[in-house]
# Entry
Amino acid sequence: MPILAGIDIGSSTVRCVIAFVEGDDNLFSIAGVGTAPCQGVRKGVIVNPDEVALAINSAIEDAERQAGLNIGKATVLINGSHVGSQTSRGVVAISGAGRTINEEDRLRVEEAATVIQMPANREIVQVFAKNYRIDGEEQIKEPIGMQGVRLEVDAQIISASTPAMRSLDLTLERSGIRASSKVVAGLAAAEAVLDRRQKESGTAVVDIGAGTINIAIIEEGEIEHIAVIPVGGQNITNDLAIGLKTTLDVAEKVKLKFAGFNDPNPKECVVEDGGQKQAFDGRMVQMIIEARVEEMLEHVDKEFMKAKRSRKLPGGVVFVGGSANLTGLEDFAKEKLSLPTSIGKVRGITGLLDATKNPEMATPIGIMMLDAFFSTQGTHSDESGASYFNPGVILSKLKSKLSK
# Structure
């Protein structure tokens, strides 16, 4: 029974999920969950490898203690505004016997799609093969076994800053954990919370973490756009601390106790700190939070515009992450984005079900889910370490699991 593990290195917290696959339905059973506070990450980028390594070890130890299992490797999160995506096309000639396309041809055309101009300080970390084309025939998901003389592929290229990736590698080396693969938060969260219908119709997953907002747009079962915005829940806390003239700890408590958006008569917000009760004007609290969240949603919509999906996502927007817990976020975002909205719920999970209830657990659980497939035929790596994904293998398997 293979042990699965996912590590989410967030801007304020490191989370580790350990699981395995069980039963005839091949459901993911969560065996252990570990969390640890972390101050060595800024806007998703590791700035203190030693501190982050200690947090990783602490989170892993907690998860291992619960699970009664030890892990030596895990799929790990890539985060930060340096992460970006772009489309590319690869073309190769088929020279095999009878012009029949084989696995080698598929690998060649996917690698041909990565021959793009890339700045010296950036590197390709993931390549998603979307649709293949054989002699002009389009929308082919699996070309192996078909015949033709010209094979093309449309691919989504995920790239990241080389210095940031080296910091992540150094951190993992110091923590003693090996990365079986690396994945962006938006994709991981999508695998945890979206069903097959949502992935086909066109849906955006928006993960609002402490320091970043991760966005993934999925349509027709394929990755259409990936982006990371360098703002998050900590910005709301900072605004409250300044606007209310209070400490960050008190501001965080006020944020968590926030009563809701667009309330015409917001109640006074009372929190306790050090045995002392502090009261804040409800209108002021609401005004500060609404202003910051509205700005965040404007950034999100700009990314939708880049992908030509603004107000054009039939599946709507699914929010996950710690700030998805803000009371009334669903309706407020629906009004601002002019799209259906919902709070993500993890699917296809057994075991420690309490771990699935909070939307901030969607990404680490999704990372664990993807760990199940990175060592299978669905993915291969080149010499640079970039991962190549065949959607006909990985995403279809995940969609079939999550649609049950």
